[in-house]
Amino acid sequence: MAFDPRGTQMTLQAEDIRLTRGSNIVLDGLTTRIPQGAFTAIVGPNGCGKSTLLLTLSRILAPSHGQVVLDGKAIARMPARDLARQIGLMPQTSTAPDGMTVAELVACGRFPHQGPLRQWSPKDEQAVRRALNATGLTDLATRHVNELSGGQRQRVWVALVLAQETPHVLLDEPTSFLDITHQMELMILLERLNQHNGQTVVAVLHDLNQACRFATHMIAMRKGRIIAEGRPADVVTRQMVADVYGLDALIISDPVSGTPMIVPRGGSLDTSSPS
């Protein structure tokens, strides 16, 4: 039986988050609520704080002010194992230990479910098998991770998060290194996790058209602040694209999905915008 998180969903939100690196303000008084059961895409130009927000929501980074709250509890005070049963994170860059196979790495996603009285079980084995199958890695299960291509390794890390079976799945640029076919397969997989499994998905995405097609909720950021959030159809306007990306573009209807589609008209409106 596949994992079903519907009875365990919790509200995840950031409250007045401020995070600095040296003298640089990365997140500046940011407040947002991640809708339960939604597919949220975090978008914006390079260096705007997208990945920092994701890492703060998962407690990898600690804010200098404000807090992240999960079901009314500050995650800073939650036991690590308890938090790992609720939030699964795929970071932007990860490295597997030398000699570790695909199946062994994906099995690491089951560690939060282990304990002194609960060791490896048939349920764990089934979760790993489902994750390998969902990401098209079953035939590569015995291969060493470091022998794989960049796109294959990316799918291994996604599989690890899937095997963790958490109500919240957070992914930082999950389509990096993937060709267009595997990008679409992965986005469809995330959509299925969200729509059929009921998992809350939050992904940092660079492809704005891809975000519009698959996400049900969007957070648009610039310079550490949220410029707009809501349904992609409401968020993605010509003015928003100009304000956030400094780009002059037409917004038309995607002929396949009917979602907003961004068609650039030319170069940057503001050459001082982050690249």
Describe this structure in words.
It is found in: Cell membrane. Keywords: ATP-binding, Cell membrane, Hydrolase, Ion transport, Iron, Iron transport, Membrane, Nucleotide-binding, Plasmid, Transport. InterPro entries: AAA+_ATPase (IPR003593), ABC_transporter-like_ATP-bd (IPR003439), ABC_transporter-like_CS (IPR017871), P-loop_NTPase (IPR027417), Siderophore_ABC-ATPase (IPR051535). This protein is α/β, with parallel strands linked by helices. The protein has a domain at 12-98 and 166-264: 3-Layer(aba) Sandwich (Rossmann fold). It contains 9 helices and 12 strands. The protein has a 6-stranded mixed sheet with strand order 6-7-8-3-9-10, with helices on both faces. A 4-stranded antiparallel sheet has the order 2-1-4-5, covered by helices on one side. Strand 11 (247-253) and strand 12 (260-268) form a beta hairpin. Helix 4 runs antiparallel to helix 5. The longest helix has 16 residues, at 180-195. The protein is globular, with a radius of gyration of 19 Å. The termini are far apart.
